[in-house]
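Bumping with the actual sequence this time:
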Amino acid sequence: MTEAFVEYTRPALGGQTIHALLVDNEVLSRELGAALRRAPGIGAIHHCADWSELERRLRTGRIDVLIVTAAAAPRLRALGRSISRPRVLMLLDEPQAANLGPLATLPIDGFLLRQELSTRALHDALHRMAIGEIPMPATLTRQLLGRAAPGDNLRPVSLTARENETLTLLAQGLSNKQIARWLKISEHGVKRLVGSVLLKLGSPNRTTAVVTAMKYGLIECH
């Protein structure tokens, strides 16, 4: 099966541009391309040859968002946990969403079911990621919360008062802009706080940070 990459650009919030690439088979590439062409504000759609080309683009240009499938999971860890890394949206099949496994430890910022792929769903997921939210299917949310029972032998975690406030707001699903308004600080300040929380909890993204915090008893699991 041939791998395909789809890159698209569209105006982001604040007038910036988001570049995203999809790694998957040709059928899904066409489906996603069609959905992107129907969504408002989408720019050019480019097909790239392989992962090596993606790596070259990451090294030489700015990539804000990557759209991938679970097949790309082994390569995602190389993105690291830097705040400046691209945001990652992963397309999952329903069986994959029901058995997340090691995907939960990867730097992934949002999930979308392939069975639910549509112009509206894709555009909504990308918009939510752009404002700092975490798009996620309900089946995956239930699975993550089910894993959040307090655990034993956890290493001590010490958060500052400001980091605890940030964590609580993250658990409520607030975006960076909303957290900034709540804490009366800049969005840049919120990004630093979120990055610090992720680092201390050893989490690659906001979703797993909240789940880990529940295990530590730092926030309640409702």
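The tokens above came from a reply further down the thread. Confidence is low (pLDDT under 50) at residues 1-16.
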